[in-house]
């Protein structure tokens, strides 16, 4: 199996038909070239190997890594506690396929937002149920059997968040305006850069990797800039007291493993990357 400097790693992608999974698939060849082979897996759909937890793994190949981008997101009737169960299922699958590590999609939502960039050393303090479910997933993985588990605290993925959904519909984008006159600022990552991070981690010496890793562009992005870069008008409303002006991840650890372009968080670049990836793997 692959190690840094060895053959290109083989990476199995769980959640390949979800929003983030489709974008990563659409960006894969352009972002990674021949640096890795992606094996997309989903319960149904075209262009993926069909598999779900509890089924035999005979049709799945041996792999270096599993990228578990599946999970339950907020919505009526959805059981967010399933995220921990799915993480354990990914660990079990990794064992069956000989993987050295499993990359689990956690979230910036586990942090209590603040004015400063949020480092991995800040204890989880989620203000909402989704972040609490991801924090519980991380706790379960601390002592989970199987391959090395790496929790990726991912920022907003361009093309997969609510802002981009409004942009895609062609709507006027309504955003909070804060006392400084600005719109919400968030850590984003483009699908191409997320693919590059997955490859870099999958090819690295496993023992050198941290168990927790923030994944985002080096600098956060103003949501108004994203909407304008996509050619959509913006309407502002006064931010309510509960609104959060800034959620920015400290990416110092990531920069040591997979340095991203300093302009990776530019609004124009994120929009272009999203649209290219979506065109390659449409829903």
Structure, explained:
There is one protein chain. The model has no long low-confidence stretch (mean pLDDT 94). Helix 1 crosses helix 5, helix 2 runs parallel beside helix 3 and helix 6 packs across helix 8. The chain has 283 residues and is α/β, with parallel strands linked by helices. It has a 7-stranded parallel beta sheet with strand order 3-2-1-4-5-6-11, sandwiched between helices. Strands 12-9-14 form a 3-stranded mixed beta sheet. Strand 5, helix 3 and strand 6 form a beta-alpha-beta unit. The protein contains 8 helices and 14 strands. The chain is globular. It has a single domain, classed as Rossmann fold (3-Layer(aba) Sandwich), CATH 3.40.50.720. The protein starts with 9 loop residues before the first strand and ends with a helix.
Observed structural traits:
three-stranded mixed sheet; alpha/beta; single chain; 32% helix; globular; 283 residues; Rossmann fold
Question: What average pLDDT do the residues reach?
Answer: 94
Helix content: 25-40%
CATH fold assignment: Rossmann fold
Terminal-residue CA separation = 33 Å
SSE class: alpha/beta
Strand content: 15-25%
Number of domains: 1
Low-confidence stretches: none
Domain NAD-dependent epimerase/dehydratase: 80-215
InterPro entries: Epimerase_deHydtase (IPR001509), NAD(P)-bd_dom_sf (IPR036291)
Protein name: NAD dependent epimerase/dehydratase family protein
Organism: Roseivivax jejudonensis
């Amino acid at each position: 199996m692959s190690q840094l400097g060895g053959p290109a790693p083989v990476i199995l992608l769980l959640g390949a038909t979800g929003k983030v999974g489709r974008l990563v698939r659409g960006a894969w060849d352009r972002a990674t070239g021949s640096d890795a082979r992606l094996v997309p897996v989903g319960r149904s759909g075209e262009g993926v190997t069909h598999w779900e937890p509890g089924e035999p793994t005979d049709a799945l190949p041996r792999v270096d890594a599993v990228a578990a981008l599946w999970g339950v997101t907020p919505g009526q009737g959805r059981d967010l506690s399933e995220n921990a169960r799915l993480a354990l299922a990914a660990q079990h699958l990794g064992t069956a396929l000989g993987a050295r590590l499993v990359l689990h999609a956690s979230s910036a939502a586990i942090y209590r937002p603040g004015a400063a960039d949020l480092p991995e050393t800040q204890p989880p303090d989620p203000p909402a149920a989704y972040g609490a479910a991801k924090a519980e997933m991380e706790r379960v993985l601390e002592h989970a059997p199987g391959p090395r588990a790496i929790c990726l605290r991912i920022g907003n993925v361009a093309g997969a968040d609510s802002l981009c959904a409004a942009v895609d519909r062609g709507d006027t984008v309504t955003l909070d305006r804060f006392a400084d006159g600005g719109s919400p600022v968030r850590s984003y990552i483009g699908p191409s850069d997320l693919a590059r991070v997955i490859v870099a981690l999958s090819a690295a010496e496993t023992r050198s990797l941290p168990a927790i890793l923030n994944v985002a562009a080096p600098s956060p992005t103003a949501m108004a800039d994203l909407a304008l870069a996509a050619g959509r008008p913006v309407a502002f409303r006064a931010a309510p007291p509960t609104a959060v002006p800034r959620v920015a991840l400290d990416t110092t650890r990531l920069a040591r493993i997979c340095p991203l372009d300093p302009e990776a968080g530019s609004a124009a670049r994120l929009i272009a990357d999203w649209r290219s990836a979506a065109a390659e793997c449409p829903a």
